[in-house]
Write a structure and sequence with these properties.
CATH superfamily: Spore Coat Polysaccharide Biosynthesis Protein SpsA, Chain A
Strand content: 15-25%
Protein name: 2-C-methyl-D-erythritol 4-phosphate cytidylyltransferase
CATH architecture: Alpha-Beta Complex
Bound molecules: cytidine-5'-monophosphate
Structural class: alpha/beta
Number of helices: 7
GO molecular function, one term: 2-C-methyl-D-erythritol 4-phosphate cytidylyltransferase activity
Function: Catalyzes the formation of 4-diphosphocytidyl-2-C-methyl-D-erythritol from CTP and 2-C-methyl-D-erythritol 4-phosphate (MEP).
Distance between the termini: 36 Å
Keywords: Isoprene biosynthesis, Nucleotidyltransferase, Transferase
EC number: 2.7.7.60
């Protein structure tokens, strides 16, 4: 079986604060997106990486890829993305050549995912799971609330799911290609990850162990943490 990775990188990244789109921000001098591409291409299973660029930024992303060293044995495609993460992933899937029957979807915003995590996801799909998500237990207790109309106002707590049954899920999420395409054709509700679309089809989704270094760079403090991880790796 052949494995392709789709990397949605079309988000604005407003929660990081003002500046360039998140995927183009630098970590220790290299754009977040380049770190993410290298992390996926580091897996010997992955032979194609499809990067989904901001809708008006495909040319810029192409020249970014040309300007950085990437593995020779991996093919790269750049396609323009859409208004939502979901639409960006679908546009990436549309660009996949037929030979690829396993698809990884990986957030550009998770630049430091270790190659062992990527390989574990691929192996679980190859072992027959139609959808696989890397997951970690939670440190925080989670409350369900009635969201306030005005941010910062007190919010009524509706309940507390049992923490031991909850998992924080990461990417890459891995899929049987046909299953993921059917999910994107069928599910129209807004979702925050691809596996939840497969869940809505009634298909089996399983977790494998995630990794703390696969965290999503979302807020300004995450940039500090990511650079610290990179510096530690070089030691
Ligand atoms: O906003 P969030 O951090 O959940 O975004 C997750 C990933 O989805 C990011 O890599 C972001 O670039 C991508 N995205 C996208 N197209 C959008 C919105 C987000 O590719 N329209």
């Amino acid at each position: 079986s052949r494995v392709a990775a789709v990397i949605p990188a079309a988000g604005r990244g407003v929660r990081l604060g003002p500046g360039a789109p998140k995927a183009l921000r630098a970590l220790n001098g290299t754009p977040i997106l380049i770190h993410a591409i290298r992390a996926l291409a580091a897996s010997r299973h992955v032979s194609l990486v499809v990067v989904v660029a901001p809708p008006d930024g495909a040319a810029e992303v192409k020249s970014l890829l040309d300007a950085h060293a990437l593995p020779e044995r991996t093919d790269f495609l750049v396609v323009p993305g859409g208004a939502s993460r979901q639409e960006s992933v679908r546009l990436g899937l549309d660009a996949l050549p037929p030979a690829y029957d396993v698809v990884l979807v990986h957030d550009a915003a998770r630049p430091l995912v270790p190659v062992d995590t990527v390989d574990t996801v691929v192996e679980a799909v190859r072992d027959g799971a139609p959808a696989v998500v890397p997951a970690l237990p939670l440190a925080d207790t989670v409350k369900e609330v009635e969201p306030a109309a005005v941010p910062g106002e007190p919010e009524p707590v509706l309940g507390t799911p049992v923490r031991a049954r909850l998992r924080a899920v990461q990417t890459p999420q891995g899929f049987d290609r046909a299953t993921l395409i059917r999910a994107h054709e069928t599910v129209t509700e807004d979702v925050t990850d691809d596996a939840s679309m497969v869940e809505r089809l009634g298909e089996r989704v399983v977790t494998v162990p995630g990794h703390e270094e696969a965290f999503k760079v979302t807020r300004p403090l995450d940039l500090v943490l990511a650079e610290a991880v990179l510096t530690r790796r070089r030691l």
